[in-house]
Amino acid sequence: MSDNEGITPVPVQESTFAQIDAAVNAALQAAEQWAASGGAQRSGLLRELASALEAGRERLVALADAESHLGAGRLSGELDRTAYQLRAFADAVDAGEPYAVIYDPAVAGAPPAGRPRLLRVAVPLGPVAMFAASNFPFAFSVLGGDTASALAAGCPVVVKAHPAHPGLSNAVFDLAVEAVRRCGAPPGVIGMVSGASREVGVHLVRHPDIAAVAFTGSHRGGVALQKEINARETPIPFFGELGSINPIVALPPALETQGEALATALAASIAQGCGQFCTSPGVLIVHRNATTDRFIRQLAEAMDAQNTHAMLTPAMRANFDEGVARLNLHPEARRLTAGEQTPDRHPVPNLVAIGTEAFLRHPELREEIFGPSCVVVTVDSTQALQQVLAAIGGSLTVTVWGADNEDADTAAVVRSAIRIAGRVLFAGVPTGVAVTRAQHHGGPWPASTQPQTTSVGLMAMHRFLRPVALQAPPGWLAARRGMPL
Amino acid sequence: MSDNEGITPVPVQESTFAQIDAAVNAALQAAEQWAASGGAQRSGLLRELASALEAGRERLVALADAESHLGAGRLSGELDRTAYQLRAFADAVDAGEPYAVIYDPAVAGAPPAGRPRLLRVAVPLGPVAMFAASNFPFAFSVLGGDTASALAAGCPVVVKAHPAHPGLSNAVFDLAVEAVRRCGAPPGVIGMVSGASREVGVHLVRHPDIAAVAFTGSHRGGVALQKEINARETPIPFFGELGSINPIVALPPALETQGEALATALAASIAQGCGQFCTSPGVLIVHRNATTDRFIRQLAEAMDAQNTHAMLTPAMRANFDEGVARLNLHPEARRLTAGEQTPDRHPVPNLVAIGTEAFLRHPELREEIFGPSCVVVTVDSTQALQQVLAAIGGSLTVTVWGADNEDADTAAVVRSAIRIAGRVLFAGVPTGVAVTRAQHHGGPWPASTQPQTTSVGLMAMHRFLRPVALQAPPGWLAARRGMPL
Fold first, then answer.
1. Quick one: pLDDT at residue B5?
2. Pair A433, A443: CB distance under 8 Å
3. Active-site residue B155, yes or no?
4. For an interface test with A, which of B440, B441, B462 has the most A Cβ atoms less than 10 Å from its Cβ?
5. What is the ipTM, given to two decimal places?
6. Which residue numbers delimit the Aldehyde dehydrogenase domain (chains A, B) (predicted)?
7. Domain A17-242+448-478, second-level architecture
């Protein structure tokens, strides 16, 4: 429960179409100057934004906690991660990442071997519409990874604030506006619109001057936005991260040697942030045997012992209660945890067991339930395990515990995991996504709309850049290397 | 005219839905084995395909000429380019391009700085549907760049043969089947379907086991396919190259010093292959002055002196005649070339002059006319020139002659060119696209559907790969580096 009774709730402002048009227009006005900005200017702004977040920590964390119930500890850590991320992109910009070129010298003679000099540079796409998520009020919101990577790439950003944390969004945006002013960056480089209605987002993504859309949210919301974007006269890329059920495969060697520790770690991961993570583990796949039986009992007990907090919004709580009730009442499911969901208590972690056949036959058992819920599927063979993974399909993550020995069965499971996932873990839990160069956060559909791109990590920047080949460029242009004009 | 009277025309076979399903199913059966293939196996097949084309040169070029009228010299050169391209991808595979990894070692400590070990690898998407183009019967057809890059990436290919050259498609496919057999590659790694009806292509791109679509063709055809792909239950990427009018900007310094040579080169580029190139120059932008007047006269004379040949299909000829008649009869256009289009002669190069205002006011004057046609737009200022480029919009190429001196006006023009193009040339003509690492063939919409990707050059391979981050991989898996399982 939060200590923030002193904070007055802020109503969600519905931006008018004129306000949205003005924000996009300001972004468009800023686009040329920001595209032409050098590394020092871009990294300067990114670092200034990181410092501004840190300087405002106390007030921002209190605001975030009052609106999200995620707890001051977690939110302060998330603020750290967000500042770290802004600085990581600043470092990448300083190292020349958005200005990197490929150079092919001319080769004398006739084609196909003979060729002119070619210098491949990258140019920013233009104004990016960025949809903030509810569940990471710092890291996937106003100054989160999408904003940081777009700014690093040289693109202005128009944020669509999430209506679950309007007060925090306003506060962070105000800090951003001040940072932009202090850095002398063009004022339209970060804009914000808000609204709880569908119309605000639709008007934004249909605006002809928006060049790309980044989104983190629900499957339903993402599909609806994609449909609007498909109806545009000029197509633009839609980078949507739509969540998944993130299977955990616990192979026998792992359970035999470290079952108890894994049960504890998994229970904590399922309950973390009240299960409100895109990477929250929603299904556990185990082979049928006595070790497994013990592990599942340990897991259920550890889940019963978890403390949770209020969910982000009452609507999410209602969805969770409905999803869990559907699972628990399913004729082929057997509940393993003891706790009951009651309106006067925070959500209680929920675990049910389902057989392979039932899981394969009932697609509704594979749907994401946003909150602390997990399904255990028991399999009798590697082949059945592979079928279960294939039925789950596109996932942000798959975790495979106990894959230390290279044998045919393990390789087959890993192959099945790679086929459906953007990230495959062999230790630890999927919640928590490191911000680094090798990170990839985006799996095959329906986990994300563009599985070849990532929304976390340094490669996220490349979503907002487009290559241009300069053929036989004059000396003054070639001398700029990848620096924009 | 061709020397191929001995060649019997081959009718276009309409693949049945069962045949299409069988081809996709064979590709799916081959997918796992081909994805797991090492560099030697992939490059071995690519080199075998190149050699097979060369060994069959005499017969293939005769077949291609009989069906396309493009001439034996050009077609033999195109076969060379196609073999060169297959070997260039083989070299890239041997150098490890599809197996390249990004590695981030673990960092001790708490997040965000602390992190697990991450190895980012790339995995093939799966079966690719590849739509052959009419205008490059070798280089953008059965064994063209899309097929070569997909095979290099580890993806099987189902070719949709172009109905304009069915005999050649069958002959090349037969050689490919033999090469696949000789190499011991899985039989389904290259499949082919054919048909002149819309239904064949639609059934192919809607097949649930097709993972990506590559297409080179008309705007209308591309838009129709995109619509079908958008209606799939599972979205897949559509890499469509839809052509453009490829503006040439001739700045005064170029015309003053080398006007006559440029007029000759441009006339040849406009008439080359009877204007049937995606990169054929369809609009020339010049400043109004006496030097320009002389240049345009020289260009018109050089165009009148060009020899052409029959177009690829009677339908294309009809479209060309209609487009040219619309231009020539336009009340604000003035015809500069002398030749008339008559049914008993090959197409005659056509040049018309249009003022800036009229060009900006009439979108129909900016539409691509596939064939030897060009429009001259005369401008009075750099700003007007920029407006003309902006009105043209997304283009595969923009050529800027006379940009050797860095001054504000030149920089402004180059900036406008970069904004709308995938490739900006500063010398030479846009027809002819070098196959190299720095190449980028794909401009902003409507030139291509995914402007961040290229259909020519080594980076084309990355359209068919998807990153996967392996977190804390076990030793045996990490030791494979990027080698697929």
1. 59
2. no
3. no
4. B440
5. 0.97
6. 12-412
7. 3-Layer(aba) Sandwich (3.40)
